[in-house]
Design a protein that fits this description.
Blueprint: H1 2-11, H2 29-35, E1 42-46, E2 52-57, H3 62-75
Antiparallel strand pairs: 1-2
Length: 77
């Protein structure tokens, strides 16, 4: 799944910030509590203001992520 996310990260360069959290790293405990994630992969799409738009757990098709990202970016214009 990482290659897909990395590809999308490059494709949306400058329009999308991608953050990666390792749930086994104690340094991410605050983010885990705040974003309420506890498994991987877990994708959370947030607006610029931090509002949760959509989320997925497990492996998902690239097109699903791309469609959701495109819709979010269009709504944020």
């Amino acid at each position: 799944m990482k290659p897909v996310v990395h590809g999308l990260e490059r494709q949306y360069d400058g329009r999308l910030d991608v953050l990666y959290f390792d749930i086994s790293d104690p340094k991410t405990e605050d983010a885990q509590r705040k974003l309420k994630f506890s498994s991987t992969p877990h994708f959370i799409l947030l607006r610029k203001d931090g509002t949760r738009v959509q989320e997925w757990m497990g492996v998902i098709p690239e097109d699903t992520l791309k469609t959701a990202i495109d819709a979010l970016l269009k709504s944020e214009r």
